[in-house]
Amino acid sequence: MCGITGWVSYQRDLRTDRTPVEAMTRTMACRGPDAEGIWTGRHIALGHRRLAVIDLSGGTQPMTAHTPDGRVVITYSGEAYNFTELRDRLRGRGHRFETSSDTEVVLRAYLEWGEAVAERLDGMYAFAIWDARDEKLVMVRDRLGIKPFFFHPTADGVLFASEPKAILAHPLQKRVITADGLREMLNGWNTPGAEIWSGMREVRPGSLVVVDRSGVRERTYWTLEPREHIDDLESTVAVTRELFGDIVKHQLVADVPQCVLLSGGLDSSSLTVVAARQLAAQGERVHTYSVDFAGRNESFRPDSMRATPDSPFVHDVADHVGAIHRDIVLPFTSMADREHRRAVIAARDFPVGMADVDVPLYLLFKAIREHSTVALSGEGADEVFAGYPWFHVPELAHADLYPWMAPVLAEWDDANATGMMNPGLVAALDLETYFKDSYRDAAAAVEFLPGEDEHERRMRIMCHLHLTRFLPMLLDRKDRISMAVGLEVRVPYCDHRLVEYVYNTPWSMKTFDGREKSLLRAAAGDLLPASVRNRVKSPFPSTQDDRYAGELQQQARELTEDADHPVFRFADRRWVDEVVRMDPADVPDSTREALDRTVDIATWLELHQPEIEVG
After folding, report:
1. Which tens digits make up the pLDDT trace of 369-407?
2. What does the alpha-carbon distance between residue 508 and residue 231 come to, in Å, rounded to a whole number?
3. SS3 content of the chain, % helix, strand, coil (to 5)
4. Do 520 and 576 share a domain, yes or no?
5. Phi, psi (deg, nearest 5) at residue 597
6. Domains held by the chain: number
7. What are the distances in angstroms from CA 363 to CA 321, 355, 356?
């Protein structure tokens, strides 16, 4: 895993103008703590920060291939899990390799197939290739958008990077956010191609962007398409199991220590037992990690999302497979630490307002990085196998809104959490219309098979929206926070082969036993302890300590003492004044979350100092 940056300018000689790309590359140091590389040509400057995972001594980047007609140079982030198969095929076509890295395989695959290289890769990746033969840049992103990739078209070329902060380090990118950017910042999903900073865009998942003297053009090489499912239930379960096993096998390839993130739920536990069996065949034991809060088991309070604490189930699985397991137990003080919040927001470039989830994730990854460089995660299973509760609520499946937003909007109404927003901003952004329009456009993009009945069509829409709008948001969080500490997180459930297969499985098969994630439970359940096999979904743990709400109130109270603090362009001062006077034990979860976002926004404003242009 790495960080990539670059600048194309057809009206400048960038061989003598390296300073901007050097500054851009430095912002990616956390993504690549092992090495830095800069390469410049007449109209191109490429930057790279390396986290060495495959071929530790080789694989230096940017990497160059020489052809009779000119150089081809790549700056690459991610993993192509089928690189050994591709290398064998390329050798058969006459290519010679100087390293054992997957980077060189991708570079030589481009020499062989050009832009069609994208369709031949399995994995998570974001890379840019400068082809001096045609003076063009080709930017490619993986199918599901596991690796982030952003770009900013300029008057004579483009800026690009793994993260917005790198593009913001270039003087051509202004720190301006318009109404559209604010809507994207305040929504609860990821709009493909959108970014909050004016002029900046995201390379869409499953797409490539080509830049040459004629301008910028985009092409989609992969989408979720409807296909007829011909397997019966028994065969479907068997194919799911075989596919997942092959995916995990490929993702366990690394030249550095690796581990599995274990929460005790069906997703991470299934991943753990499959990985443990494969490692055992090589004479190795699986290493697992979990996160928890001091005193949580003794003081745990069931709620609508979490019926049980994770710890007992984590240990059931770890004992079951003989894992080398470590619990990362966080004290309250680390949760409320302001520097931890600042580090998370700096990593995400975004004020999400979920510090009670993001900070524990950051601290977990930071602890893991002391022992491992690669971690496998169960992220994506809920979106692929329909694991969220709202998948199974008919009125939400047939409502004309993003289904995961319904509970959020209900909580907002109950707790008046929308009152946290400045009334003038609410009116200017017209979020209600924006939410409806976004859903309508997303649903209209879904394709169907001939003869699908209304219910099957609605459930296909549900699955499509989760995979294209909800999952990318979670993948971005996992990537940014893990790479902030130089940890590579792999997500086997997001392999496009598994996604395509399960997406096209009829809804009756996805729920054949009347429960969520029926196919996954059937495919891996016999490998699991009974306690985990029958456990209902429980999301990533968050603290239930009332002192956390109290600390949020104190930080918000300090904001109110500054009459000119820019956070009150976003938050309603009267609402904040009311909430900070409440007893911490009486602060509802939805109000605490809104207060969390207020403090997040304030921290983000201090970090980035954006210019807000709204009506």
Report:
1. 999 999 999 999 999 999 998 998 888 888 888 998 876
2. 13
3. 45, 20, 35
4. no
5. -65, -35
6. 3
7. 25, 11, 11
